[in-house]
Amino acid sequence: MEFGWSDEEKAYRARVRDILDRSLPEDWDHIAVHGPGSGLQTAFSRDFCKLLAEEGLLIPHWPASFGGADGKSWDHFILGEEIWAAGEPRGPQYMNVNWIGPVLMRYATAEQQAKYLPPIIAGDVIWCQGFSEPSSGSDLASLRTKAERTEGGYIVNGAKVWTSYAGLADQCFLLTRTSAGKSGIAILLVDMKSPGISVKQIPALIGEGDIHELFFTDVLVPEENRLGAEGQAWEIISYALQNERIGIPRYEFARRILDRAIAKLKAEGRFDDPVVQDRAGRVLAKCEAARMMVYRVVDERAHNAPASAFGNLARFTVVQADHAVSDFMLEYMPEGMLGADPMQQAHHQRAIAAGIASGAAEIQLNLAARRHLELPSETYRGL
Amino acid sequence: MDFEPNDDQTAILDGLDQMLAGLRIQTPKEGETVVFAAALDAELAASGFLDIGREAGFSILESALIAERLARLPVTAETSSSAIVGQMFRAGEMERPLALLQGSPLAPARFLPQARSLLVDIGNDLLHIIVDPARVEPVESLFAYPYGRLAGLDGLETRSLGKEMLAPFRRRWRLAIAAESAGLMRSALDTVLEHVKTRQQFGRPLGAFQAVQHRLAMASGTMNATYWLAMRAAWSDSESDCAVAATYVQDAIPIFTYDLHQFCGAMGLTLEFPLHYWTYRLKALLGELGGSSAQARMASASTWSEAA
Fold it and tell me: Is the model's pLDDT at A174 over the cut of 90?
């Protein structure tokens, strides 16, 4: 047991920081404030991800057989910490490298991998995830978007909602229903230019271009675009969500926003107040608690241990930390939300979605209770 | 970065478990608020487990692992003060058991009825008082530690350890609070999990209700975060990490102990049910060294230096 970074890991972090310093424009804070799904940030991501690809830093954690570098789990997190804390210049493409690519590597056919992986590896494709529906949010398995068999494929009809990044997406990782129950879900990889798809942006508190409604009207999807078998979707989704829940190092962005706030408070002579120091110390403790919980999950991966429900606990701790920092900022630095600090607002907008995205925080607690604490199911009715 | 114990750490914990198994420690059946395990205390002193932080090749991290493991027991002995704070001093310099105080030397202190040494942070100096057991008055309390206070200081050998010892003393005390709390939380939570899996109401176990599940999952998150913050603090032995760990746990103890007692109903308020052994030790640690506000301000000061 030890908790330090090796010299190699420190050098790796320094290299990522150097690339960020060199490649982010002077007005980056004003670009980042609109969120990863904005037109500006999405456009920037296409240049930035190409640069990362050239530097070998877009998919270093992927296996070498898929173009990665067989990178270590810890390096992947160091990379994620630095880039997310900088405001995520990969834009929506962080999803590609964190979970869409890994899911395709595990479950896609060789033909699908040949089609979908190269644009991800080149840093030049935007994916969206068509999961939630108007009547299926946390209860994802109740989804109703219908995929009916037709000659050579499926005809898709239905609607998705809260779909991140859909407005500029090239591809959609779409969950559809082919029959009743969890076994009746199929995953289709859908070209967003297909006839019959319409996208409507939902104005929201969490940034421009972040969430959308997606409508599918008689959309033809070729059978070769189905990922896995019909009936295998839930297994694939569970694998995808494991990677998504702690894939974003939110604690690091929160911690850096807190550090920036303290620097400003000190410069203004406001940090002499012991009440402010008390509050800041408690928020700091929550950030570091979240960091250690996430690191515990990364350590599982580093030891090639099977994924455990510890990730659900870690995710909840991360949500608490993100909100604690956001609330501290609102109380002591409200001016940051009034135009003085775009990055503070960017953090706030990420934080308020933390307990909703990737499965509501309460769903994380449900899963932790059942899988980690082995508590009885809610439907238990006695012996 | 490696969260798994190494071979030496595993061997130490296995050895400790073997020693504890040999002592056949039972959960007390008589309703008592405090059960001081004299045999355990003596065995720990003789075995060298509490001095491992001074051994070549080991550090205070191994001491914290031991303190956490011992805190899981329903009975108590003076462990974390010796294992973590006591390692600041040369071997033999400070006879254990240790009692720790901040402020008045005459205030009630944990383990003072058994202590041979009392360390007192009086603000501008760290005092070492050689304890004469005949001068200690026991203090009754709900806290599941033995407490006592000195009847007076006259005639007791007292020496100044110097102002420069205050910072390391407080740092190690914070670490001891965090490491011990992690073990206390684990056993308290295990006890309540067993209860809610077996106790049935409305035709199903209490643990099948979502209102209970969510709060226990949150308690598990708190317990785990406390453990890892404490172990990181023990590894680095830094002012910031120790203060952060103590802040986190002292901030969390009120809601953690409230929820665990809540799910055990009136049974959790009895001395027959063992939950109080861990929760009332946690409540005792809640206020040590100035409580969560003092630790939080120290976390701020040490993390963002030249503050405070």
Answer: yes
